[in-house]
Structures are given as C-alpha cells and as structure tokens.
Amino acid sequence: xxxxxxxxxxxxxxxxxxxxxxxxxxxxxxxxxxxxxxxxxxxxxxxxxxxxxxxxxxxxxxxxxxxxxxxxxxxxxxxxxxxxxxxxxxxxxxxxxxxxxxxxxxxxxxxxxxxxxxxxxxxxxxxxxxxxxxxxxxxxxxxxxxxxxxxxxxxxxxxxxxxxxxxxxxxxxxxxxxxxxxxxxxxxxxxxxxxxxxxxxxxxxxxxxxxxxxxxxxxxxxxxxxxxxxxxxxxxxxxxxxxxxxxxxxxxxxxxxxxxxxxxxxxxxxxxxxxxxxxxxxxxxxxxxxxxxxxxxxxxxxxxxxxxxxxxxxxxxxxxxxxxxxxxxxxxxxxxxxxxxxxxxxxxxxxxxxxxxxxxxxxxxxxxxxxxxxxxxxxxxxxxxxxxxxxxxxxxxxxxxxxxxxxxxxxxxxxxxxxxxxxxxxxxxxxxxxxxxxxxxxxxxxxxxxxxxxxxxxxxxxxxxxx
Length: 467
Ligand SMILES: Cc1ncc(COP(=O)(O)O)c(C=O)c1O
What we know:
Elements: H1 3-18, H2 31-38, H3 42-54, E1 58-61, E2 65-68, H4 71-76, H5 86-91, E3 104-105, H6 118-131, H7 146-160, E4 169-173, H8 174-186, E5 192-197, H9 201-209, E6 213-218, H10 226-236, E7 240-243, H11 257-269, E8 273-277, E9 302-307, E10 318-322, H12 325-338, H13 344-355, H14 358-383, E11 387-388, E12 396-400, H15 408-416, E13 420-421, E14 423-424, E15 437-441, H16 447-460
Parallel strand pairs: 3-13, 5-6, 5-7, 7-8, 8-9
Antiparallel strand pairs: 1-2, 4-10, 9-10, 11-12, 12-15, 14-15
Helix pairs in contact: 1-3, 2-3, 6-13, 7-13, 8-9, 8-12, 14-16
Bound molecules: pyridoxal-5'-phosphate.
C-alpha cells in the first residue's frame, strides 16, 4: 500500500469533515465508490475510514457503512492511550516530551478492544436472561453447557475437519486453564515435556510449575526438523509435546500439512501426547491454515485446545479442550477440583454469539484490520532494515534485533523511558537464551500508534536509521 496515497486520502477526508461537507449522521460514500472516484485502491480508502473511526470522526453501522459522528459525541469519544491522530504523531519530534509518557504497548498478543464485537456481546448479555431466566441460579455441568458443546462440535467438524462426540469436548475457563489441566493431569514431577522454542510464555511457567523437565524443540518458518524431533522422542520418551503449530505465538509460523500427518503418527508410535494449542487459527491474511494436527489423530494421542480470546471476547474466558475418553475423564476430574465448571452465564452469552450469523462477517473485517496494522508495522521496521519472517496470520512479528543495539532487555529498558513496551525474546524461551529477539504485537495499537511506537523503538535500539 502506498503510504503517501493513504495520507492524502486521509487528509482529504479529514478536511471535508472539518469543513462540514457532510452533515452529522450523514452516510459517507461507500469504500468502492470513493476508491473509484479517487482512483485509488479500496484498501487505501478502507484504511483511511478506519483511522477516522478510531480517532472519533466517524462511526460504522453494521452492514450499512460509515457515518459522520456528531461533534457532541466526538467530544465524549475516549481516546485509548495508544490512539492519536496520524497528523499529531507524525508532526511531533520523535521523542517529543509531551507524548513520551504515553504507553505504546506492543507487548500483549491481544486484539484492540475497538476491533472486537463488544456491542453484540452486550446485546447477548442482556438477552441471555430472557432466554435462560435461571442462568445464575444453577451451576454449569463440569464438562460445560451442552448447547455450547454441541454448537462447537458442529463448528469444528465443518471448519476444522475435526469430528468429535460431545463427550470429547469440555469448556474451560480460557485456554490457559486447559494447558494447566493437561499439565496437572498428565505430567508428574521430573518427567520430560517437549516444548517449542520459542513458545507461549505462560506455557513455560505452567509446565515448569508441575516440575516437568523441559526439552526445547526449535520451530522454523517451515515447521520442525522432524528427524531431530524423532531423535528427541526416542531419547527422552517425553510425556507430552506442547505445541502451537498454527500462526504460532510468538513467531507466527505455521507447521506444514505433511508434518501434521507425521506428528500424529509419531505421537502414537512414541506414546507421547501432543497438546495442540490452536488459539490463532482464525486470524489469517491469505489462505486459511491447514487442518489441525488433531484432525489426523485416530488413536487419541492429540489433545486439542481452542481459545476464542483472540478474536471474540477475552473477558468471557471461554475456551474448549478436546480429548478422547480415558484422558477426558482425567481432565474432568481436575476441572472439577479446580472450579467445578466454567461460569454458565459466560458460556450462554458466547453460545448466543456463536449461534448468530455474525461471526463470519466479524472475522472477515478483523482480518482486514489486522492485516493493515501488520503492513504498517512492517513498513516502519523495513525502513530500519530489521529482519523477521512475515507471518501469514496471528497477532505478532518475531523480530531479530540488530547486534549493535544490545540485548532485548537493554532495548526494553531504554524504550520504557519513551513509553514503548514489547515482549523480549527471553520470556518465550524455555532455556532463556534468546536475547536478540523481540515479539512485537501489531494487534493492540492502532495504525498511528504503531507508526509512532516503531519510530521510538528504532531510535531506542541504538541503531541509526537508514537514509
Ligand atoms: C498460544 C496461546 N495459548 C493460550 C493463550 C491464552 O488464551 P486464553 O485467553 O483463552 O486463556 C494465549 C494468549 O496469549 C496464547 O498466546
């Protein structure tokens, strides 16, 4: 996308809005028509509209289009810390004292709440009491609400080629609880657990917490070194292998389909459970990802974990874990001990959202918005000549720091003084040695904030920008 063109379109629209060329609540020209009129790409117009929306100039009506936000409401528009109109951030000096205290957080692999379907969830939260008046007067079953489990089984069969009985699926309080349950249920202190390197930082803590001996398995843009993996399986006879093979956190890499089939075979051959954490499956920018490893499992050696936090409602804490009978029984036992079942209210609210037709439309828009943010981040980092493998999905870039600037921790300390945060590579490394990598999430901060934050970061890295 041409950056200058985007600026011109954005400035033009902003000027028109300031000059009141459109009335309050008037509908703006559709993305298609405006793109044709201006002779630019639709994405350029969409991005300009999105930025105007995020900065409180316009609003969007589902399935209708963009409208002018009245001045009065604009005054009430609460800017998030990361929000700042493009012109503001671009016209200021790199470390302008006025803004240096603001936090540009690229540390969380979380989606900006402005991009989530909050309005629908609040609608369903009200509706749920009409439909289920006793929802707060009873417990959920330990395994989770039947209606929700049935909808999820159908969804997984349709979209993931994963065919399950309802008894094979349990609702958990977030995917993090599901990982914790697998650790409690299947790993004894001193047993070996294979874990990707780098990996989701909380998984390291969870498996270390149950006394496991962690053996790292490097993940590359094209998956794992399967010969090496087999050698590890033979040598250590590990209890399980925790993996996040689809738009992996933190790298965004995806394990190819041929390795997925082989992984299911190896798990069975070496009697090593695979715990497949599939938290980012729906966030892709090109082709949808290959089916989960679990879809190739015939003997119950793959435990499948599915979070919905990354694109729907992290606050609901609804996730699913799938396993076949003897293992599911053990997971249920630990779930019972832990909290006796996930909150029913949250499950029913999520059920109403899943059962509506809104999810597909929301995901389509979310992918566009996150794709734009990723492009913006990559544009900025490219100017500094930094290196990373551009991911086809997920929420983050795994970036190698230039050698001259010192370790990720040192850069992070300097960045903190300038209001920029990221996740240092070490935090994702089971053996704590990845000091020259950082994870930058492009999902939480808007485009203007990303540009400003990347400029600050590059300056703090101690490496001069290329001309
Ligand atoms: C790989 C991975 N698994 C699980 C989680 C946690 O998901 P939940 O919010 O459902 O607990 C995260 C959150 O960042 C994650 O990155």
